[in-house]
Description:
Elements: H1 12-46, H2 51-58, H3 60-65, H4 68-78, H5 82-101, H6 106-120, H7 123-138, H8 142-163, H9 173-187, H10 213-227, H11 230-242, H12 247-267, H13 275-293, H14 299-307, H15 309-327, H16 333-362, H17 366-386
Helix pairs in contact: 1-7, 1-8, 1-9, 2-6, 4-16, 5-6, 5-7, 5-9, 7-16, 8-12, 10-15, 10-16, 10-17, 11-16, 12-14, 12-15, 13-15, 13-17, 16-17
Amino acid sequence: MPGESQIPIADAPTLRRFATSLALFYGAMFALIGAYMPFFPVWLGAVGIDASWIGIITAVPAVTRFTVLPLITSLAERHGSLHRAMIVTAVMTALGFAVVGTQHQALFVFLAFTATACMWSPILPLTDAYALRGVVRYGLKYGPLRLWGSAAFVVGALACGLLVDVIAAPHLIWVIAALAALSAAVSFGLKPQDNPKPPPGALHGATRLLREPGFLVIILTSALIQGSHAAFYNFASITWQLSGLGGLTIAGLWVLGVLAEIVVFALSPRFTLPPSALVVIGALCAVVRWLITAQQPDIAVLAVVQLAHGLSFGLTQLGTMGLLVRHVPVHMMARGQGYFTACSGIVAGAASILSGAVYARYGQGVYYVMSVMALSGAILMWLAQRHGVFERKPAPL
């Protein structure tokens, strides 16, 4: 594991403080996401923003993932510790949402939200990089740390369903701003980590990681598999509603998937397969999931299929993080996460556009396209493993 040998294992109290503060931050951050996803578009409409502007404004975070985000993660890596970068971005995000809430004109909302998204989008890759450094330093497992984010997302999403009937739509932005403020407050409890020193003679080219075949396989494979969820994220609720399912049933199906994801993360310390095998299994589960979904199954089958989210998403995420820990030097983890998130953003954006065009013409047939994406990821990872890509020692970075 790159850079691991020179990093000492901490005592048990330090380890617990690190794990607790990180779990709390994951929870606060995903609770914010859980509130943002259903509330923000509703708030935009409630303050008079028309549909065309809503589409533009809500697309901003996706654009920042492959433009501003890699620059910020690289900057955080070169100057200071990750935990300080996480605090700064969390505080600026909270301030940004507060400013967004004061704007009701489309252009001003767009400008304020663009500035906010530039700070908000890097938080997750910075946090994952911080977590993976902790995995290396303290000998922790990524899954049990990350599951608190998924659990908080469920709580946030369910709370939204209750609050939307209590809070007037034009005030929903303040729920989002409050959770952003909570994330900022929790960030001050994050524990600093020693800034890993690169090995002697290491090269520091900004794009050096992108010349490593193993790293490229990791990020492209994950992007293909996770990107294959695009049709599900965009059209599942619409399809279920058109088929006659009620709002509570639809919410329950979403929650089933996230609960399965939590279980996979919780059980991950017991997994003994190599990370590349976890990614292949996750991809093949995605293939089967999308093929079944394309058949418009009844509610009983659909509920079982939703449980596969723990494998198609959760197992792929675990395998990807495991590969990054093994293949990316610890002193370049933030930059690696930035490139990984940028690649995922590009593929997910393209998959969303493609899925929209295919769904408009073929309906549930869009899931056949998604199954091909997931299968491509499985084949790419299998070929890389078979040809020993991950066994080759990367060039010094």
